[in-house]
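[recover] target loaded
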């Protein structure tokens, strides 16, 4: 619909008046010329303002996103505040333990600070410690407030630095209690426990675990006052770190357990995403892909376990230096590349869910290790993720194992990354963060431009 200005413009463009006078010599044309010049200036100012808005939005995009909003899923993408969310991140299982001692909390702050300076925006850590020394849960239903306050601090500090958290609820391994401690608790109460794998089937053990889920999710943070289930700093819950049930290689036992526990988590918390804690091993549902596995089975099924409706996204771990009998770097890199790309394709084409590489690493204690090998290892994972993300694929990010800060020698396991000590690896990490952040900014710009176009079209349709 033509506006009053465009109608005036059409009239003034006639070459001559009925009296044969040239328009440029008329008062009307003078007014039009001044109006046209003013309009040029207004258009220029509007364009510059739009550019500034876009730049400011891009510059503060991460801060705005981290300031509020739960990470959700939409098809194969994570979404945050209406835009696809891609994240480079790290594991730091130790955060709660150090934070439970006020004198050690500076290390938690330092780790988050160093992480954000390298563009890292997601972290995975433990929300469990079962029995033993300084436990979170000393016995079924009995919790150590000092440890819980340590976790409170971790969450509040992550919020300050704009870092989203993935919190794991129990361990497959016994170092910090894990499923072994749960079955021991049940056995001491007279339950007929045959093996640690009864964790997944014994009703008393499952009751203990459900109580832990409820206790953690409904915990009110002593620092922020926000219940965990209502805190957008938490991106997702993980049912178990590296869930395994070797006594049933078919994957059916784990399938039933994940289905039950996913439903239970969702009954308390409709805000957060949930993942199972899988490493990515294939089983009977995709027999042709079992050739991609290392030469052992752990009772999980990457395809079927991740197709459970309550599971929002898939996870993969990768440690070819532990999994393969051939220690050669070439063989490890070849396995890693195939492992990463196969799972990206399955998340994209079969699961139709986002994929997060929740753990990967290579140990400095391996025979013949050198820094270049680690950098190549990281680059193999990062390149596959970036290639997928750039094309709108299912790979959404990764978290290396593990980040430490200076003064944490007792936590070194060979896989640790102290950013200040490993400049070449730190550079590889920062470059990946920058590349994924550019994708996030691109989508944010496209979203803003589309919103502006829609608003402009509505204004034009209204004849204003």
């Amino acid at each position: 619909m033509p506006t009053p200005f465009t109608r005036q413009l059409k009239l003034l463009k006639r070459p001559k008046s009925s009296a044969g006078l040239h328009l440029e010599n008329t008062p009307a044309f003078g007014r039009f010329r001044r109006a046209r010049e003013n309009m040029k200036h207004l258009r220029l100012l509007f364009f510059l303002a739009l550019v500034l808005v876009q730049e400011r939005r891009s510059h503060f995009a991460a801060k705005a996103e981290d300031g509020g909003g739960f990470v959700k899923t939409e098809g194969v993408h994570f979404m945050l505040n209406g835009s696809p969310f891609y994240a480079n991140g790290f594991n730091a299982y130790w955060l709660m333990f150090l934070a439970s001692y006020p004198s050690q909390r500076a290390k938690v702050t330092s780790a988050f600070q160093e992480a954000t300076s390298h563009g890292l925006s997601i972290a995975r850590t433990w929300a469990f410690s079962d029995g033993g020394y300084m436990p979170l849960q000393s016995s079924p239903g009995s919790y150590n407030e000092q440890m819980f306050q340590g976790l409170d601090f971790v969450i509040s500090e992550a919020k300050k630095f704009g870092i989203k958290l993935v919190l794991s609820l129990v361990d497959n391994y016994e170092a910090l209690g894990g499923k072994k401690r749960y079955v021991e608790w049940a056995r001491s109460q007279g339950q007929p426990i045959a093996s640690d794998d009864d964790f997944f089937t014994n009703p008393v053990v499952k009751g203990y675990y459900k109580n832990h889920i409820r206790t953690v999710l409904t915990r009110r943070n002593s620092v922020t006052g926000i219940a965990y289930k209502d805190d957008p700093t938490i991106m997702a819950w993980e049912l178990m770190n590296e869930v395994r049930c070797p006594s049933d290689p078919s994957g059916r036992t784990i399938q039933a357990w994940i289905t039950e526990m996913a439903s239970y988590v969702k009954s308390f918390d409709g805000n957060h995403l949930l993942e199972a804690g899988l490493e990515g091993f294939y089983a009977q549902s995709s027999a042709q892909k079992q050739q991609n596995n290392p030469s052992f089975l752990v009772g999980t099924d990457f395809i079927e376990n991740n197709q459970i409706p309550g599971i929002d996204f898939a996870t993969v771990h990768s440690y070819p230096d532990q999994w393969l009998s051939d220690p050669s770097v070439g063989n490890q890199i070849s396995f890693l590349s195939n492992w990463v790309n196969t799972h990206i394709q399955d998340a994209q084409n079969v699961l139709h869910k986002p994929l997060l590489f929740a753990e990967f690493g290579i140990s400095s204690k391996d025979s013949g290790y050198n820094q270049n090998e680690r950098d190549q290892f990281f680059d193999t994972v990062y390149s596959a993720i970036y290639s997928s993300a750039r094309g709108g694929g299912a790979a959404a990010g990764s978290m290396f194992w593990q980040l430490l800060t200076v003064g944490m020698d007792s936590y070194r396991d060979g896989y640790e990354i102290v950013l200040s000590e490993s400049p070449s690896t730190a550079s590889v990490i920062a470059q990946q963060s920058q590349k994924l952040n550019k994708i996030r900014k691109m989508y944010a710009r496209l979203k803003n431009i589309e919103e502006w176009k829609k608003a402009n079209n509505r204004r034009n349709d209204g004849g204003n």
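[recover] notes: The radius of gyration is 28 Å.
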